[in-house]
C-alpha cells in the first residue's frame, strides 16, 4: 500500500482524539453535541434548503 501523508495525518488526529477521550467514543460524541448546541453558526437546516430549491424550481418552470 502506498504511503499517503494526508491519510497518515488523519490517522494521527483520530488517535489523538481517542486518547483525549480515553478511547470513549460516546464521550467524544457528547462533547460534539454540546459544541454544536453552543455554536449555531454551522448548523444547516435542510428544510430551509429544500424550500429554497423548490422556490428556484418554480421560478425556473415559470420562465420556461
How is this structure best described in words?
Helix content is 75%, strand content 0%. The chain has 64 residues and is mainly α. The chain has one domain. The radius of gyration is 20 Å and the shape is elongated. The mean pLDDT is 87.
Could you give the topology of this structure?
Layout: H1 5-20, H2 25-38, H3 46-63
What can be said about this structure in brief?
The chain is mainly alpha-helical.
Compressed to H and E, one letter per element, the order equals HHH
How many separate helices? 3
The tally of domains stands at: 1
Number of strands: 0
Please report which band the strand proportion falls in: under 5%, 5-15%, 15-25%, 25-35%, 35-45% or over 45%.
Answer: under 5%
Structure class: mainly alpha
Share in helix: over 70%
Please name the defining characteristics of this protein.
single chain, 64 residues, mainly alpha, 3 helices, 0% strand
